[in-house]
Amino acid sequence: MTTEQDVSASEQPDAPGPTNPRGRVIVASLIGTSIEFFDFYAYATAAVLVFPSLFFTGADETTRLLASLAVFGVAFVARPVGSILFGHFGDRVGRKGTLVGSLLLMGIATFLIGCLPTALTPGWEFWAPAFLVVLRFCQGLGLGGEWSGAALLATENAPAGRRAIWGTFPQLGAPIGFILANAIFVVLSLTLTPAQFQSWGWRVPFLISIVLVAIGLYVRFKLIESPAFQQVLDQGEVAQVPLVRAFKTAWRPMLLGTFIMLATYVLFYLMTTFTMSYGTTPDTVQKAQAAAEAAGRPFNPDSFLPGLGYTRTDFLTMLIIGVVFFGIFTLVSGPLAERLGRRRLLIGVTAAIAVFGLLFSTIFDGGTVGVMAGLVIGLSLMGLTFGPMGAVLPELFATSVRYTGSAISYNVASILGAAVAPSIFVALWAAADGSVFWVGAYLTGAALITLVALVISRDTADVDYTTRTI
To answer: pLDDT above 70 covers what percent of the chain?
Structure first.
């Protein structure tokens, strides 16, 4: 006997009602996540390059970096809270209004970071890092509601058999936002002196984000509600408390979704936040001491960790090249996920990520060619694993709890895979006296956990998207 859970989407009639034009869906889902990730990555880059010396004073280099990365992790703690908050309204009121709210919160918080006095300002030694934590928390709240809404916007408007392809639209926001944010840092580094960049140049990406937010809001106000959610409204199936219904009816897919996403998060923050720190750290004590003296910072040779020794501009440029491959393989992943199935594709990619983790230190010890190859390989794998998630996580849930369920999975995974990862990477790097073998091994461990979740899960390519549960 066939249940509604086993019926192919191609055998079901399309949800009734008007739909958003394809171009509007692409722009609205892509521009929103591009802006959100632009804001998020602007902070991630500043957290490594300038925030340790501007907001955390009176400690050695490693301690300041760890403090800055800890505040970076605050947003990941906030993201599950944001997923509950915005998931509630997304499943109760609708996708459109919730997406507007998440973008507005993220944008205002980011703009205010650009206005914030630093701990070097008299009287702000305590308040500067405290307000930075608050604004970082608000960034996390906004992003906690943004991704799921953008993924639902794309996939709930997608034609049958093309959800994975349309689901890559919001995923492209990650590489686009990263490239925009870091390209601005490169331009600033080339056009400003180190003193000017340290004094005010770092604020520019945060301040100009308000223009991008205004564009995103304009596009999203033109949307109509997705057909799938409109059907829930018309049938009176809206959950009074979506969080409660999600935990009662969909706890297993939330758990699976969290661990399916785990390796993706660990890989991304290894390839961006950690490699930025590792790549721009001087490779000798003499260079590290000279850099500290030039910046007017105390230097403790006992806390020195040897890095790759690239200049900030050179490594950012290499990283941006790698992220281009991230974007390319995000696009490639959509058709592959439709052709091979989500589960089969992700099992293969995750196994490759596990191997890459074991080879991480060897590849990055291979000079400039090795570093560039490592960035390209790691970020290509990132595109292949991140791209299908725009369809995979929403497909695990019924429409009435889809926003809440997919948002919780995505953002709880951010705590397990991203909030603590940068600090763990630095701690493993320090414990091994500058070796990064155990940093790569940490990625391998996360990939093995994700493989287990994928093996015990079911493929979601052919489910009826209006009723899907597991």
So the answer is: 92
d(C-alpha 249, C-alpha 360), whole Å: 40
Answer yes or no: is 42 within a domain: yes
Q: Is the pLDDT of residue 239 over 70?
A: yes
Q: Could you give the count of Cα atoms lying within 13 Å of 366 in the half-sphere of its Cβ?
A: 13
Whether 98 contacts 145, CB under 8 Å: yes
Residue 203 lies in a domain: yes
Residue closest to 284 by CA, chosen among 292, 272, 296, 275: 292
148: nearest Cα among 356, 413, 426, 329: 413
Q: Which domain holds residue 133?
A: 18-222+241-455
The overall longest dimension of the chain from CA atoms, in Å, is 75
Nearest CA among 310, 143, 127, 154 for reference residue 226:
154
CATH number of the domain encompassing residue 141 = 1.20.1250.20
pLDDT at 115 over 70: yes
| Residues constituting the chain | 470
Q: Average model confidence (pLDDT) for the chain?
A: 85
Mean pLDDT of 55-77: 79
Instruction: Report the pLDDT value the prediction gives residue 298, as an integer from 0 to 100.
Output: 67
d(CA 285, CA 304): 7
Distances from the Cα of 335 to the Cαs of 4, 120, 150, 239, 387, in angstroms? 26, 51, 19, 34, 10
> DSSP for 98-165?
HHHHHHHHHHHHHHHHHHPPPTTSTT-TTHHHHHHHHHHHHHHHHHHHHHHHHHHHHHTTSPTT-HHH
**Alpha-carbon gap, residue 115 to 139, rounded angstroms:** 15
Judge contact between 303 and 62, C-beta under 8 A.
yes
| pLDDT for res 470 | 39
Instruction: Give DSSP secondary structure letters for 397-435.
Output: S-GGGHHHHHHHHHHHHHIIIIISHHHHHHHHHHHTTT-
Whether residue 3 is contained in a domain is answered as no
Would you say residue 33 lies in a domain? Answer: yes
Residue indicated by tokens 């709210």: 101
Report how far apart, in Å, the C-alpha atoms of 211 and of each of 107, 109, 149, 215, 216 are: 9, 14, 21, 7, 9
Residue 73 has pLDDT above 70, yes or no: yes
pTM: 0.83
- Reply yes or no on whether the pLDDT at 308 is more than 50: yes
Query: Above 50 in pLDDT, residue 15?
Result: no
Token representation of residue 431: 């414990």
Total number of domains in the chain:
1
CA 322 to centroid of chain Cα atoms: 16
Is the model's pLDDT at 9 over the cut of 50? no
